[in-house]
Amino acid sequence: MIPTGSGFPLKDEDDGRMTAVCLQHTSDGPVIKRDPQNRVRVTREPDPGELWRFTQSRLAWFENPPRGVRHLQLVHFMRSDLGDNQTESPTQGGLTPLGRDVIAECNRLGMVVDVAHGTLALVEGAARASRTPLILSHTNLASRRLDPFTRLISGDHGKLVASTGGVVGIWISPTFTSLAGYVDGVTRAVETLGVDHVGFGTDNSGFGQSRAVWTDYADFPLVVQLLRRKGFSATDVGKLVGGSYVRVFNQSMPASG
Length: 257
Known about the structure:
Elements: E1 32-34, E2 40-42, H1 50-62, E3 71-73, H2 97-109, E4 112-114, H3 120-129, E5 134-139, H4 155-163, E6 167-170, H5 179-193, E7 198-200, H6 220-229, H7 234-252
Parallel strand pairs: 3-4, 4-5, 5-6, 6-7
Antiparallel strand pairs: 1-2
Helix pairs in contact: 3-4, 5-6
């Protein structure tokens, strides 16, 4: 499982037979919310130093008990000096020079590079810049022409991540109305990208008034059962539910200087 399960209750990880739960922090959290059209937007400019202080407080908490940060997502909803995101008009040509420097530092420190929320141009730049496979932690492959400012990606976008040896996490977006539908989405992604390049990218606490489909780690065995019924072998299920992410994580670690 790719580490973006921000909406899940941690108390149920044992019931779901989870061996690891990774937590996430989004630095722009204080200044984003959903608008009446259910699109996440930046609602105000942060006060000077506000997001840095917010992040520092969260990182201090991450150090105990989660023991630090080993996975960095380059962009989110707020405009970033690292490059363009999918939900705002692109103005920086994809990945910026600073973004390339950040990827180089991630490679040096042994941190996973996550290109979720980034434009195709940003991912193209990241694929050239990174010495390790990329993760696109949470998205879905679009079944039709992409809408403006969508968080979905094209097959070519996903294949670019796969070409680095990386993994695309399939996200439980509002397009899925059941766990079986989610497993169908995972299956479609495997058909496009290959089983070695698909994982779970949960990141789901609901979407405005839309109820989350998967809200409890105790449902994890059910999702595994649904994958098996789809015809996935035990080996392939192991890759989808975390094995391929662990591979990328381990490939990122030896880059540590």
